[in-house]
């Protein structure tokens, strides 16, 4: 697995959460969110970064005609709001809980800067993570802007295969065990859920893929 979101297979929650550090543990608390609750809105002050202890979080924005654009759907162990580390003063995106029991570890920007200043290895990991995340986001936005729906889906499946897939020794097929619902995938590639169902079933009928709720198999003849 070559995951960009989880840097070098490191769970960022375990690495970064102040609750893990003695000097912060006594005064640190977690924030709980229900499904559809917003963690922050566009134009909110950017004075914290956030780590997901439990649940899923959607990152996105609204374009000029009010259409929602989903930039990422993040899960346990992942970091968001990280542009605050780089000096962002106001949010240019929203963050919204997708689960009824989402638990977030908020980290003040000053605290993050202290941790980065005291540990060069830690600091390099953070900057490397941010750089990889921006590259992945740029590729996804290029898909939304310049590719048709089927191409978006095929390239997203290849991305899923890179992040969550493994080869099946017996058949050579690629097996993807992923954390996304069909609604999540549709949002991430900018199509409706009915359109996604049609495209997935077309690929299934063409013996390109097979799938169930949490697993996708890409047949070796199509890989």
Description:
By secondary structure, the chain is of the alpha+beta class. The chain is 37% helix and 24% strand. It is built from seven helices and twelve strands. A four-stranded antiparallel beta sheet has the order 1-8-3-6. Strand 11 and strand 12 form a beta hairpin. The longest helix is centred in the middle third of the chain and has 27 residues. The two termini are 16 Å apart. InterPro entries: cNMP-bd_dom, cNMP-bd_dom_sf, Env_Response_Regulators, HTH_CRP, RmlC-like_jellyroll, WH-like_DNA-bd_sf, WH_DNA-bd_sf. It comes from Winogradskyella marincola.
Key features of this structure:
disordered N terminus; 223 residues; alpha+beta; globular; single chain
Detail the topology: elements first, then pairings.
Blueprint: H1 12-16, H2 22-25, E1 31-33, E2 38-40, E3 48-54, E4 57-62, E5 68-74, E6 79-80, E7 94-97, E8 102-108, H3 109-118, H4 120-146, H5 149-164, E9 165-167, E10 174-177, H6 182-188, H7 193-205, E11 209-211, E12 215-218
Helix pairs in contact: 3-4, 6-7
Protein name: Crp/Fnr family transcriptional regulator
Pfam family, one: HTH_Crp_2
InterPro entries: cNMP-bd_dom, cNMP-bd_dom_sf, Env_Response_Regulators, HTH_CRP, RmlC-like_jellyroll, WH-like_DNA-bd_sf, WH_DNA-bd_sf
